[in-house]
């Protein structure tokens, strides 16, 4: 079979080179999945959905005109929201190319992403050109990338890649490096008679997937047992199993919406002191995998919920819808955001009642709403404290990324939080002491329970205002030994 001129060119790059030539040979680096742990294509797609959702309707027309055209349009509409300064770069690859640059080797970026994005990354890394990326007419991947590099570097080049699309480029390269390469792909490369030097260990998806589910947040879903706990003497243990299954299903929906929220907040999270370590923001979890995981959890949970109780399915559908509305837009508006959070806690209680067909009383819902409204405001105070401690006073008037509050609003948020805390305690005392539906057989037990609750709530606010609370208040309470003790005492009082 006759070889083409390009194949002869590619073969020549494998010829034995002198040590001096190898040291000066250009090092070509792929970007998506190699230099960074994420993919710019999906990054732009997420930003289009978040900031310009009308572009979803245009996607089908862009796809019909080819992948290169699609990448170009996505860059134009979503690229402005993806900053090269905060991308999840692989430290091993950055260190490797820095050492190569110090040795005098040219560092060249070559990616299937839009050429304008490639140039912005090169500018951020202070790399001189030429660099290569896709244009409107050419999707620079696989054999197209290999041919371009062979023409540009006839004396050979080394290449760092990560995916099966890079096999054609590895064939044309002198020394082949892998970053983020799976075990299966490595075996495939070896089967083709090539050697591959790993710069990073194989990717592990299971741990990032579990991390993205935020299973510790399932503690909030224990509220689903509230109605059962109140009515237990009347209904017995029969509905306990169904409520337990409901707890798991609600947790699946919550985890699914957490993943979607992280997808939409991926850029803002990278600018955050602690959220940048989340699975999606850090690039440990791929965007397509995360989206498939979220949708699967939500769909399966809704189908299973319908067979437990259609009303329960309807309630968690409302919970899911409100959560997604919060993630897309409502969390950007001051006061509206905390009302949404308080409503989501109330829906957890309503969901438990829907399973056993018992409607919660207005007293209970009022207490729950104001109680969690207060904690939601405490959460905002924690965020504002962190902002206050990390930026100059001149920037205190700037709103938090993705929020409607600035540091200057802190006093207002504290006042609102303490007022709603007092209101929730007021409802609790009236409900437990005067209502015919009282939880307690003795008013003294009711009073003691209220005192314990008041102490815990005021202590939480004390820590939040002082800046001694560095987590979400609910998550903090789960880890705080005194909160656990007070919760146990309150539970004992209810049982007694």
CATH fold label of the largest domain? Rossmann fold
Under CATH, the homologous superfamily of the largest domain reads HAD superfamily/HAD-like
Strand content: under 5%
CATH second-level architecture of the largest domain = 3-Layer(aba) Sandwich
Low-confidence stretches: 1-20
Helical residues, percent: 55-70%
Largest sheet: 6 strands, parallel
Give the SSE string: HHEHHHHEHEHEHEHEHHHHHHHHHHHH
* Physical arrangement of strands within the biggest beta sheet: 3-2-1-4-5-6
Number of helices, counting only DSSP H or I runs of 4 residues or more: 22
Overall pLDDT level? 88
Alpha-carbon distance between the two ends: 88 Å
- Categorize the overall geometry: elongated
| Tally of DSSP β-strands | 6
CATH class of the largest domain: Alpha Beta
Number of domains: 3
- Computed over alpha carbons, the radius of gyration is 28 Å
Membrane topology: Multi-pass membrane protein
Subcellular location: Membrane
Protein name: Prenyltransferase
InterPro entries: HAD-like_sf (IPR036412), HAD_sf (IPR023214), UbiA_prenyltransferase (IPR000537), UbiA_sf (IPR044878)
């Amino acid at each position: 079979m006759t070889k083409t001129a390009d194949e002869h060119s590619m073969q020549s790059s494998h010829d034995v080179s002198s040590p001096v030539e190898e040291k000066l040979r250009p090092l070509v680096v792929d970007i998506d999945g190699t230099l960074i742990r994420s993919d710019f294509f999906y990054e732009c797609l997420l930003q289009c959905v978040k900031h310009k959702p009308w572009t979803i309707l245009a996607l089908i027309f862009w796809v019909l005109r080819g992948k290169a055209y699609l990448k170009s349009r996505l860059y134009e509409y979503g690229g402005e929201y993806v900053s090269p300064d905060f991308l999840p770069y692989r430290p091993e690859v950055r260190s490797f190319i820095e050492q190569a640059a110090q040795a005098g080797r040219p560092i060249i970026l070559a990616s299937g992403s839009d050429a304008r994005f490639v140039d912005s990354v090169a500018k951020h890394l202070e790399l001189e050109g030429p660099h290569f990326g896709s244009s409107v007419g050419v999707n620079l991947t696989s054999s197209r990338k290999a041919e371009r590099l062979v023409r540009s570097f006839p004396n050979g080049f080394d290449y760092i890649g990560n995916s099966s699309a890079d096999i054609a480029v590895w064939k044309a390269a002198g020394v082949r490096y892998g970053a983020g390469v799976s075990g299966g792909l490595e075996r495939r490369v070896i089967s083709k008679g090539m050697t591959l030097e790993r710069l990073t260990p194989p990717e592990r998806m299971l741990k990032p997937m579990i991390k993205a589910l935020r299973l510790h947040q399932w503690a909030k879903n224990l509220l689903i047992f509230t109605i059962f706990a109140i009515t237990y003497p009347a209904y017995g243990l029969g509905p306990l199993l169904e409520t337990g299954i409901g707890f798991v299903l609600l947790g699946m929906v919550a985890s699914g919406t957490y993943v979607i929220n992280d997808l939409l907040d991926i850029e803002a999270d990278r600018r955050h002191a602690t959220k940048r370590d989340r699975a999606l923001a850090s690039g440990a979890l791929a965007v397509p995998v995360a989206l498939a995981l979220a949708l699967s959890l939500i769909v399966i949970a809704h189908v299973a919920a319908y067979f437990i109780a259609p009303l329960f399915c309807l309630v968690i559908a409302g919970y899911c819808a409100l959560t997604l509305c919060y993630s897309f837009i409502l969390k950007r508006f001051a006061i509206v955001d905390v009302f949404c959070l308080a409503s989501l806690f109330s829906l957890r209680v309503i969901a438990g009642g829907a399973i056993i067909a018992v409607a919660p009383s207005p007293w209970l819902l009022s207490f729950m709403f104001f109680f969690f409204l207060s904690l939601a405001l405490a959460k905002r105070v924690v965020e504002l404290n962190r902002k206050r401690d990390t930026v100059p006073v001149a920037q205190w008037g700037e709103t938090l990324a993705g929020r409607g509050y600035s540091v200057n609003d802190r006093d207002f948020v504290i006042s609102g939080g303490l007022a709603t805390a007092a209101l929730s305690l007021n409802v609790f005392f009236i409900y437990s002491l005067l209502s015919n539906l009282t939880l307690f057989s003795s008013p003294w037990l009711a009073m003691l329970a209220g005192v314990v609750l008041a102490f815990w709530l005021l202590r939480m606010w004390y820590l939040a205002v002082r800046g001694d609370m560095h987590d979400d208040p609910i998550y903090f309470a789960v880890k705080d030994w005194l909160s656990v003790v007070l919760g146990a005492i309150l539970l004992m009082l209810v049982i007694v």
